[in-house]
Design brief:
366 residues, mainly beta, Porin, 16-stranded antiparallel beta barrel, 60% strand
Length: 366
């Protein structure tokens, strides 16, 4: 079984207590919202049965201290975590640090000071402001598929080497962001300096820092909204183990584009990255996705997604591809949805067999 550190529990309890105390103070304004999603997934492999997954319950508090200052906290219960009080040792003593499933994560917790629209300052922990999707990972009703493009640009796995392959999913540090009107267009920017990628998730064991940012510009074109975007991320981190470290420097650049015309949306991004080791060797890898959807009668949204991942551009027969299509039915437009989708995953390696993935889910915002 995996462990949840006692310190994490203390932090979560402390956050709840502080939020409760702040709620009782009349001078501040506290708003709550959140998301819920549950899925049924069947991969077309004989040894994998269909699974029912309580994907996430996300609780978000927005605490307005004054007109320019706020605190945001987001607590995510992913895959129905169950905390077990377990017996430790032969003496019968109990230990409250084991879990049998799921994750409990404080994804966002930061203070923001916003003196101007073009300048906001944040300090704390946040989803990295990268690309179109990373910061809305749990905002399930705001997109049509069951998940963001996790095979490709937003690659997600359970180990540190592959989790968020092109950048850190979460970052802790200082952030500058804002919006600037340029004629009829609008420029949005994000810049951050944060703790470097760690060997263990959510633990700062890296003395180096990461630097990243994002630029979006909504072009001043009537009747159609075209928004080019470019993100970047760089850091130095241990790619091996604490006992036998292998330090690498990574640089990722992620250009993309979103086009919206009436009820049609097209969104795509590339991820281009390289890692350089201390001995001078390097590896290049890249990914791509494209999403397209069209909403009919504010209720029905058919969608299509194509994804490609090349984990080593200098090595052959390792690409993965996936095409996903389906339908989202909006019980309440972009607030609550029922989603149905079929995906087909293929591999460049002839030893790996392609297969279908059948899935359905419910996404609710509140």
């Amino acid at each position: 079984m995996k462990k949840i550190k006692v310190g994490n529990k203390v932090l979560i309890v402390a956050v709840v207590i502080v939020l409760g105390f702040i709620s009782a103070v009349e001078a501040v304004e506290v708003n709550w919202n959140g998301y819920f999603g549950t899925n049924v997934v069947k991969e077309g492999l004989r040894d994998k049965p269909a699974t029912i997954d309580p994907f996430v319950l996300s609780l978000i508090s927005n605490i307005r201290i004054d007109e320019k200052t706020r605190i945001l906290g987001q607590l995510d219960f992913e895959h129905g975590p169950f905390i077990d009080i377990s017996v430790k040792g032969d003496d019968g003593s109990k230990l409250l640090d084991l879990r049998t499933s799921g994750e409990l994560t404080l994804s966002n917790v930061y203070v923001e000071y916003a003196p101007f629209d073009f300048l906001k300052i944040r300090a704390g922990k946040s989803f990295a402001p990268i690309g179109f999707y990373n910061q809305i990972f749990y905002a399930l009703p705001t997109y049509n598929l069951l998940c963001i493009p996790e095979l490709s640009v937003y690659h997600r796995k359970s180990n540190i080497r592959e989790d968020a392959l092109f950048f850190q999913r979460y970052v802790v540090g200082l952030f500058l962001l804002g919006d600037i009107n340029i004629g009829s267009g609008r420029l949005s920017y994000d810049l951050f300096v944060t703790n470097g990628r760690s060997f263990r998730l959510h633990v700062d064991d890296n003395d180096e820092k990461s630097i990243g940012g994002r630029l979006k510009f909504q072009l001043p074109i009537p009747n159609i909204r075209i928004t080019p975007i470019v993100s970047f991320y760089t850091d130095e981190f241990n790619f091996a183990t604490p006992v036998s470290p292998v330090w690498v420097t990574q640089l990722s650049v992620l250009p993309g584009l979103e086009v919206k015309w009436q009820e049609f949306t097209l969104r795509s991004e590339f991820a281009l990255s390289n890692r350089r080791k201390e001995d001078g060797s390097k590896e290049d890898f890249n990914a791509f996705y494209a999403d397209a959807w069209y909403t009919l009668f504010e209720r029905f949204t058919p969608f299509l997604r194509f994804e490609l991942l090349d984990p080593d551009a200098d090595k052959g027969k390792d690409q993965e591809r996936q095409i996903t299509f389906g339908l989202a039915y909006h019980l309440s437009p972009w607030v609550s949805q029922i989603k149905l989708q079929i995906a087909y995953r293929t591999f460049e390696n002839p030893d790996k067999k392609p297969y279908f993935i059948y899935a359905a889910g419910v996404a609710l915002g509140f």
